[in-house]
Design goal:
The chain has 159 residues and is α+β, with helices and mostly antiparallel strands. The protein has helices at 10-17, 72-90, 94-101, 139-152, and strands spanning 2-8, 23-26, 38-45, 51-65, 106-123, 134-136, 154-156. Helix 2 (72-90) packs across helix 3.
Length: 159
């Protein structure tokens, strides 16, 4: 099983931690398979925080695609339709959602399950490099982050 380090802007991290954001939307995600699933997704709060603050088990992953069209209005219509189906769980306004996806031809929504928050966040110096979007963790990094979770103890968050 693999672990993923996911870079999340601090304002979205707060929404995940307080339970307002139950799904995270992305233009790109990792490749997981039945034979090599993702065990944990570690949340890295990007600058200015630059710390690993929590982990979760990825639940359902929803996917949507827009028709290949050069017309921005058609793509925006498809994104808006999709936003209406997930709006209560992504903690984004329609404008934020449409701005984020812009001309993307689709996206993903990742369900956040079994969220565990570090009592003491892990400084970025303990991971090889911070991701721009996401990256797979080495086995060593995964073990290190597990040790930190066991030492600091997870703060269980009920969603």
């Amino acid at each position: 099983m693999r672990d993923v380090l996911l870079s999340v802007k601090p304002k979205h991290v707060k929404l995940i931690l307080d339970g307002s954001k139950k799904w995270d939307v992305r233009k790109k995600i990792w490749r997981a398979s039945v034979t090599d699933p993702v065990r944990y997704v570690y949340i890295y709060a990007s600058a200015p925080v630059q710390e690993v603050v929590a982990r979760f088990t990825p639940g359902e992953i929803k996917t949507w695609w827009c028709p290949d069209s050069p017309c921005y209005e058609i793509m925006e219509h498809h994104h808006y339709d999709w936003w209406k189906t997930v709006k209560s769980d992504v903690a984004l306004s329609a404008d934020e959602f449409l701005d984020y996806f812009g001309c993307a031809h689709g996206g993903y929504a990742i369900e956040i399950r079994d969220l565990q928050v570090y009592h003491v966040p892990v400084n970025r110096n303990f991971i090889r490099c911070a991701p721009q979007n996401y990256r797979y963790l080495t086995e060593w990094e995964s073990r290190w982050l597990d040790i930190f979770m066991n030492i600091s103890g997870p703060l269980e968050v009920s969603l």
